[in-house]
Design goal:
Blueprint (H helix, E strand, L loop, with lengths): L50 H17 L8 H9 L6 H17 L4 H13 L3 H14 L5 H13 L3 H11 L7 H11 L1 H17 L6 H11 L3 H13 L4 H4 L3 H15 L5 H14 L3 H26 L6 H33 L10 H21 L1
Helix pairs in contact: 1-2, 1-3, 2-4, 3-4, 4-5, 4-6, 5-6, 6-7, 7-8, 9-10, 10-11, 10-13, 11-14, 13-15, 14-15, 15-16, 15-17, 16-17
Length: 387
């Protein structure tokens, strides 16, 4: 065996971290005293206000601005509160909030809280180039934005395939105590990608000379797994098995793929594309199954169900303000109700993967996954009642 196949891929196990938080640093609890009988959206929402109250404030502010372009805009705390509940409101309300943020920036001066909220909202609607642009403006004012906001900028750089920006952002944030170990690992993997590809290409060259050099296949599986390339992992496993490599010899190399996918789920969230991530994990599990691959599928399904459930809740709970509004709300409610069976079915898939062996994976946080599945089912049941 050459030294190439003794190279050790980064394989630290990461527990699933479900990170939520405010879009920026806490805004002041109060705003400038409004005039008597001033609209409520000129004051900061109460921290206990639910998504519908905050969304209504944004919708009313937008309507007032459209009707009278010189009207005062909401203070930053309103957009900050909206960003905090953005996953539980409709896309139309998010678009209105973004329009108000853009108008606030046009009027100037730029405000840290408003920019942080805008980063969150732009990420929600997948405007990744704008996420990067606004984040750079934010950093010019605040050298260390909240870690949740920085994660969104990191995910945006990855989605844009801007490796230089990705490395810069990872390097800038990975030493923070609230960054988590996955960020430093991702930095190291991204920085060493060319070396991993060098090892992969060398292994491929040796296999072209001797396809039955089975010691090469675990290395290929491990290096492709470190890069998170599910299809290449699958192809390497199949080729190795066909040439005589044993499942027992290949299975340990799957851990790098599992670790990478869990790390990406934490760092990039739904920007990584839950559908493609779940499909890739399922393909790997189908060709070479282990407790870790089954646990991975369950974790990714659960993570994907959370934003989908929040979107359903926003549609089902959307209020109507008039006869026309009632009709529109009914259509939104019906649309949300139609989505419930698909999410429930995905949770069944996750539960099945745990029963099939995923619950034996020591590094998968099985108790947390089970609790998450129970909570998701309970939420769907409460939404179904409204349908």
């Amino acid at each position: 065996m050459t030294k190439t196949f003794k190279r050790c891929a980064l394989a630290t196990l990461f527990a699933l971290v479900i990170a939520t938080g405010c879009a920026g640093k806490p805004a002041p609890a109060t705003s400038a005293s409004p005039r008597p009988n001033a609209p409520r959206w000129l004051t900061c929402p109460d921290p206990a206000d639910g998504p519908s109250i905050v969304a209504n404030a944004v919708d009313e502010a937008y309507g007032a601005w459209v009707a009278a372009p010189s009207t005062p805009l909401p203070p930053p705390c309103v957009l900050t509160a909206f960003a905090r509940v953005a996953s539980s409101v409709t896309d139309s309300s998010t678009d209105r909030a973004l329009a108000l943020a853009a108008e606030s920036r046009r009027r100037g001066p730029e405000q840290r809280e408003m920019l942080a909220a805008e980063v969150v909202l732009l990420a929600r609607v997948r405007r990744y180039a704008d996420v990067s642009r606004v984040y750079d403006r934010l950093v010019a004012i605040d050298s260390q934005p909240a870690i949740e906001v920085s994660r969104l900028a990191i995910a945006a750089a990855r989605q844009r395939r801007d490796t230089a920006s990705l490395l810069r952002l990872l390097s800038r944030n990975m030493a923070r105590p609230d960054a988590g170990p996955g960020m430093r690992t991702e930095y190291n993997v991204t920085r060493q990608a060319s070396q991993l590809w060098g090892a992969i290409n060398e292994a491929r060259g040796l296999l072209r000379q001797n396809p039955r050099y089975i010691e090469a296949y675990p290395s290929l599986v491990g290096n492709f797994g470190t890069l998170g390339l599910a299809d290449s992992v699958v192809a390497s496993i199949r080729r190795g098995l066909a040439q005589g490599a044993t499942r027992q010899a290949l299975t340990p190399s799957l851990e790098t793929f599992v670790n990478t996918m869990l790390r990406h789920a934490t760092l990039y969230g739904d920007a990584a594309g839950w559908g493609s991530a779940i499909a890739g994990a399922a393909r790997v599990d189908s060709v070479l199954s282990s407790p870790s691959t089954k646990s991975l599928v369950a974790v990714l399904v659960l993570r994907a169900a959370e934003p989908r459930t929040a979107e359903i809740a926003a549609l089902v709970a959307a209020p109507g303000l008039s006869s026309a509004g009632d009709a529109a709300s009914e259509r939104r409610r019906a649309s949300g109700c139609q989505r419930i069976p698909d999410v429930a079915a995905s949770l069944d898939v996750a539960q099945a993967r745990l029963r099939e062996g995923g619950d034996r994976y020591a590094g998968g946080g099985v108790a947390q996954v089970r609790a998450g599945l129970d909570a998701a089912r309970s939420k769907l049941a409460s939404l179904q009642v409204r349908c």
